[in-house]
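hey m, so remember when u said the tokens were messed up on ur end? i reran from scratch. heres the input so u can diff it against urs
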Amino acid sequence: MWQAFRSGTVCDLSAHAADRDDPMADRAWGPERSVRAEVIHRLLLGGPEPVPGRVASLKLRGARITGRLELSGGSVAPYVELNACRFDSEVQLSETRFTTLRMVNCSVPRIEAARLHTEGDLHLPRCRVARGIRLTDAQIGTDLLISQAVVQRDGRGRAIAADGLSVGQDLQAELLETYGEVSLRGAKVGVSMSLRGARLRNPYGRRALNAPQLTVERTLYLTSVALDPAGDPGSTPPYGLGNTPPVRGGRIQRFECRGGLRLDDGRFGDAVDLFGARFVLAADQDVSLRRIQTPELRFLGERPEQGRVVLSGAKVVKLVDQATSWPGPGLLSMDGFSYEFLVPRGPFPLARRLAWVEAATPEYSPEPYERLAAVLRGSGEDADAREVLLAKQRRRRETLPLAAKLWGYLQDWTVAYGYRPGRAAVWMLVVWAAGAVAFSRHDPEAIKPGETPLWNPVLYSLDLLLPVIDLGQDGYWRLEGAWQWGAAGLVLAGWVLATTVAAGASRLLRRG
């Protein structure tokens, strides 16, 4: 190993047999494959000079590392790659500085790496960690790769504790399996963060992924992934095409979160993608997206059977969704949720969209209806926007006292609260015709002897119905008794209907 370090070559202690080289298996490894952690410590912090013309690096394969590897506070200049190694004790890397560190397919009791600093990558793919990984306030210069790792919880119930983590480029955690909370509070990712096909489980606490104030400069992927026949990740199906087949002989693995997910106050530069995601929640758990800000939210996963989806205060430019992804009444909260465009994938009729709004408002609130109507109107769907505002009035009516509620029913039945002005025009014609028929039975008396007024019941009914004009009838008539009340009712009906028609026409002209 010492000589391989000087020449930058691989020190291979493996048996070159799959059943004997698996670091996760129970088979014991003999002393011929053992390396003391103290030797690695001395080699990395004060090793020999490289062979002339070569670059010194530690590349170790198939070794059993005995004792605790303690590098805390040190500065490691050589490149380090440990492949298919087995550690007897935890790895201590707190406040250690590396150029690049790769631990691939290793079995480790625990990785303690708070405030770790790397100029290049930190790779932990396919590792199995028995008591958690700690990366609190770590700074990774380029990429963090923990794909296909299996991580159990520590004494505090956390599988990965990475609050304040900073990653210069991508965070790749595809097909990750965790059994405990993944904590990324205040973490920052310079490009994209991918948990495609990951399975996050936390039966011991409330949340499986706890990442408030997470910042991702590009896209956060919590999506399905297509696997090749060997079970490795291939390409992601295009979102919205749920029946996209995997590669030949492979399958699709969904992102699965068994426990709450919290992304409150997160900032995402391009999108939050939930295509094909599955959330298995208890009744007191939720998918919390409170106050997130992103140009695009792709809510295209499976409908949670229980638990809540919370979008209160979120700001989204484009909402890409499907009717089958949203939970039912009482399980959705959208107070203050702002979006500018709706892009449904698959059938999403207006009735389902109204049910979506009603599911988010157990108690009446006008804001979700007004937001939906504004978005529909902005996309040119004026008729649907009016239906939404009419639904808002009907929902509001249920909160009013009895008298106002009865008046509301009358408005709805006659003119649909003014959102269907054509109906008001029809009613005006009906009332005018009824007035004309009624007044045709009236025989006015002479005002002076021998001066019988010119009586035209059709024009007289129209004169009362449209009091803003004067058809010359009022100077020639005289009503008494019930005829006076009938005329007053006709004037009132004309005023209400004419106002409704005028208001509806004004709205249409303004939108035009």
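this time it looks ok to me. Residues 482-511 form the longest helix (30 residues). if urs says something different then somethings off w ur setup not the seq
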